[in-house]
Specification:
This protein is of the alpha+beta class and 104 residues long. The chain has helices at 44-53, 73-82, and strands at 2-10, 16-25, 29-35, 63-69, 87-91, 94-100.
Length: 104
Amino acid sequence: MSRSQHITIFEDGGRLLAEAEVRLQSDRISAQLRVEAGHLPAGTRTQLVDAVLELPGAAPGTPLDMALPAGDAEILQRVRERCTSVSARAAGATCHLHTAIPAE
């Protein structure tokens, strides 16, 4: 059984800045992260990563597969700050990342 969750980060003016489609399955979580092009307020990407890693009902240690824009160093850095083991590989315009939900 799986369930989906949509995470959105908006600017004060209502402009969509970033979003993630997350599927929670019994044995793993998968997330696809997307950020808007152009200048974004500082911390937007960090806020998106934190929202994915802090999903209600996601148990620490649950495997997490994440797809994000290739070359997005801020997202990758934040995942590495929060998670103990991270592997990433590029696939065209996407970076596929594997880690686990951290214990907090």
